[in-house]
Each structure stands twice: as structure tokens, then as C-alpha cells.
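Anyone up for a design puzzle?
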């Protein structure tokens, strides 16, 4: 009996020491709580949009594949009634008309961004101080039929690249020809040859590349939104008793103004193409004389008019120096965008009358 009790006690002690059913469970450490973190948010990337670069012809606004860096050529053109019709003016990007000296002498300066394709220009006459001024403002290469010592010295003093295409040593290089078949006095029978003029300038070592601002800004449709109807625009160049009228009539089908003077429509002598312009600019200009020659105070700026698309508005214009281009503005001072196409510019003495009118409606007829 004692043996059985001892065995039972030993068994009980053994069970307690081995962690029986009532033994405390070993403590366990709960895993640390994981702090939730948000994935970083990525702001949407805005790729800057770059406007495509647009290159334009600096005189007519036509689109180009590359920047224009060529020199612009200009040729003097007679504009007296007895010396018409013109030749090659329809290919000019800009045609400037102005008095050049007393006794009612009026001429044009034809500007070309690509003179090489112009087979004939004229009739070509001598240069004048006011042409030299214009050449300086636009860094033009100026071709002409000589000039007085005063005019040629003025060109030299201004640093104008210029030459006389009537001189034998120049004309023999293919810069000009005489056409005596038409009813003109001999001095009005000289015509420039575009390709020859450009080749001669290159042969003389004149710089053929130039990057500069020419002052014009363009829009596809230059019709002034707030303009008055101007199917006909009349300008009477007036200076100390001398007068000459230019009339521009709007051709709605062509979208251009037709050049009329001396009671006739201007047409090319060779091609019979009508002279017409997308833009018409009239610059009211302070004109004086040095000797017999007209000169302009372009740096003073002034007022004027702009016509396009059968509408006309008053404008202002300015110039920042003898070698700077003209800049054109609306009356409120905002820059004026002109239409893509060719331009006629009148350098008109202050006080020259400008008038315009709408086309008369056709008279109504009653069918019988």
C-alpha cells in the first residue's frame, strides 16, 4: 500500500514539472504593427508645346522653308507719262512712288527679294537722294542709270551698295539693254536685266547675305476689320505747286488694288499683265529739298493710310534711324499686320490730299 502511494505521488510531481494541462502558456511577443505608407504619387508631366517656327519672305510675307538671308535689290523706274508703260514692276515685292526732284519729276523704286528671275526692269533712270535714303533704310543693293555728282556722292556717303547699269563696263556684263522699238526718248530706253544685275553685284564682292529686320509683319487676310469702304483710293502728290494723281481701284475678284495713273490702267509693256497690289500704304512725309532734289525726314515719322481688301484705315508710322526700317501702326499704337502679297507705298509730301469712296451700285433696270 505504501508503495502504491509513493508511486502515485511521484507521477503527480512528474506531471506538474512537465507543464501539464494547467501549465501557463509561454508568453509570445506580437509582431510590431506595420505602418501603412502611401505609394508616392507622380504628378502628370506637362510637355511644353513649341509653336512651329514660321519663316516668311520679309517683303511679301509668303511662307519659306528657311530664314531669308539674301540681299534685297532695288531698281529705279521712270514714272512720267511719256515713259510708260513700265516693265517688270508686276514682279516687284514692293513698289515705292515718290517725287524725286522739282519740276514735277516722279519716279518709282522697285524692290525685289528675287531679282534673278526678272527679265527686264524699267525704264531705268538715274538715282536721286531720296532713293539713296530708302536704300539705306533697307540695306538695298541699288541699280540705276547713273546720276548727278550730288546724287552719287550722297550714295557714297551713305555707304549704299550701288552701280550704274548704263555704264559700258557694267552694261557689257549683261546688266541692261536698250530697247528703241517703243516711242520713247533715248534716255528712257534702258532696261535692267535681273540675273545680270545680281551676277554683277556678286562679281564686285558685294555682300550677298544679310540677316536683319525689315519692319513688316503679316497676316493672311490684311483687310482692316474696322475700315471704311474704299473701292477707290485717290492720292494727289502735292509739293510747292507740283501735283500728280495716283488712283487705286479695288478688284474684288483678284483681291487687289489696280494701279491707275494718267488716265490709264498700268500694264506691263511686255507681258501686258495688270499692275495690282494686295496692300496700299500712304505715308504722309515731311519733304524738303536740297538744291533741286527732294529729301525726306523719315526719322520724324508721321501719319498715313492703309488699304486692303476694299477697306481703308488711318495709320501712323515711325523710323528709329537712318539705317532702320519703317514700322506701321494702328492709330491706337498697336502694330499693323499687312496682308500676304505685294505692296505699293506712296511717300507723299505732307498735305497731299487722300480721298476714297465705295463703288457705285449699278443702276436698276426694269424689264419691259
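Challenge accepted. My sequence:
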Amino acid at each position: 500500500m505504501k508503495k502504491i502511494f509513493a508511486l502515485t505521488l511521484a507521477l503527480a510531481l512528474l506531471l506538474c514539472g512537465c507543464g501539464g494541462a494547467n501549465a501557463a502558456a509561454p508568453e509570445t511577443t506580437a509582431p510590431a504593427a506595420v505602418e501603412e505608407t502611401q505609394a508616392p504619387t507622380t504628378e502628370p508631366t506637362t510637355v511644353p508645346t513649341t509653336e512651329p517656327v514660321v519663316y516668311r519672305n520679309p517683303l511679301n510675307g509668303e511662307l519659306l522653308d528657311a530664314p531669308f538671308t539674301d540681299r534685297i535689290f532695288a531698281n529705279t523706274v521712270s514714272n512720267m507719262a511719256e515713259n510708260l508703260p513700265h516693265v517688270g514692276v508686276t514682279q516687284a515685292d514692293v513698289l515705292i512712288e515718290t517725287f524725286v526732284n522739282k519740276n514735277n519729276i516722279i519716279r518709282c523704286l522697285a524692290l525685289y527679294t528675287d531679282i534673278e528671275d526678272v527679265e527686264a526692269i524699267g525704264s531705268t533712270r538715274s538715282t536721286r537722294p531720296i532713293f539713296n535714303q530708302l536704300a539705306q533704310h533697307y540695306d538695298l543693293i541699288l541699280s540705276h542709270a547713273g546720276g548727278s555728282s550730288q546724287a552719287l556722292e550722297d550714295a557714297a556717303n551713305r555707304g549704299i551698295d550701288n552701280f550704274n547699269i548704263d555704264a559700258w563696263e557694267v552694261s557689257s556684263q549683261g546688266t541692261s539693254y536698250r530697247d528703241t522699238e517703243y516711242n520713247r526718248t533715248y534716255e528712257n530706253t534702258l532696261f535692267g536685266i535681273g540675273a545680270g544685275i545680281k551676277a554683277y553685284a556678286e562679281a564686285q564682292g558685294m555682300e550677298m547675305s544679310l540677316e536683319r529686320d525689315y519692319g513688316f509683319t503679316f497676316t493672311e487676310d490684311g483687310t482692316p476689320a474696322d475700315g471704311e469702304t474704299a473701292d477707290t483710293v485717290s492720292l494727289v502728290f502735292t509739293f510747292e505747286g507740283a501735283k500728280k494723281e495716283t488712283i487705286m481701284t479695288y478688284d474684288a475678284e483678284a483681291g487687289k488694288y489696280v494701279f491707275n495713273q494718267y488716265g490709264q490702267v498700268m500694264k506691263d509693256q511686255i507681258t501686258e499683265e495688270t499692275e495690282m497690289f494686295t496692300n496700299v500704304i500712304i505715308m504722309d512725309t515731311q519733304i524738303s529739298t536740297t538744291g533741286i532734289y527732294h529729301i525726306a525726314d523719315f526719322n520724324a515719322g508721321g501719319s498715313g493710310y492703309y488699304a486692303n481688301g476694299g477697306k481703308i484705315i488711318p495709320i501712323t508710322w515711325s523710323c528709329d534711324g537712318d539705317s532702320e526700317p519703317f514700322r506701321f501702326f494702328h492709330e491706337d499704337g498697336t502694330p499693323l499686320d499687312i496682308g500676304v502679297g505685294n505692296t505699293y507705298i506712296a511717300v507723299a509730301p505732307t498735305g497731299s490730299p487722300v480721298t476714297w469712296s465705295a463703288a457705285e451700285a449699278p443702276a436698276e433696270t426694269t424689264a419691259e
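A detail worth pointing out: The two ends are 159 Å apart (CA to CA).
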